[in-house]
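Notebook entry, structure prediction.
Reason for the run: the old model in the group folder had no record of what sequence produced it. Starting over properly, with the input documented here first.
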Amino acid sequence: MDAEITESTEESLILTLLDLANHLTRNGERLAREESLTAQQWLLLLQIAGDPNFPRPGTSAENGAAVLASNIAMARGVSRPTISALVSTLVEKGLVSQTEDPGDRRQKALRATPAGFEILARIEPARHRANKALLADFKPSEISLVLRMLRSCLDALWLAGPSVAERQRLANGSSQNDAN
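New structure, fully documented this time:
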């Protein structure tokens, strides 16, 4: 028996957001490619450098402080090995430095290097133009409303997602099977 697919505003919204994410990723790849980065490397570098626009406080460096790879992994819902592979590339390129965290020597404290900040500064004008073009038809109040709603969606996913313990296992690169 075939499942009936009906039109739904909620489903349309989710599918539209997925399409939007694909287009934004493609645009990000284009911007990052100018500096020989992938979109994921660029986003991670932005986060390590302390871009204040990331939705989860404490997952990007603030006031020159270091950020932990495990915190970024946990906030993004990906494994630490996923973040670690990106970090390794950024370290090899001289864009990020990593040191042992004094509180936990297994953790790596990450900071953007001067070269990393230079690359971000070169990408920033194109990023700003792309964002302005994308949002040109919206009033500032509409942009603020959409941002609040999207952050509420992220919060709902965060709360409905894995437990804190499971997020920590994911961030540390362990699966549920590893815990048993």
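Summary: Residues 175-180 have pLDDT under 50 and may be disordered.
The old model has been moved to the deprecated folder.
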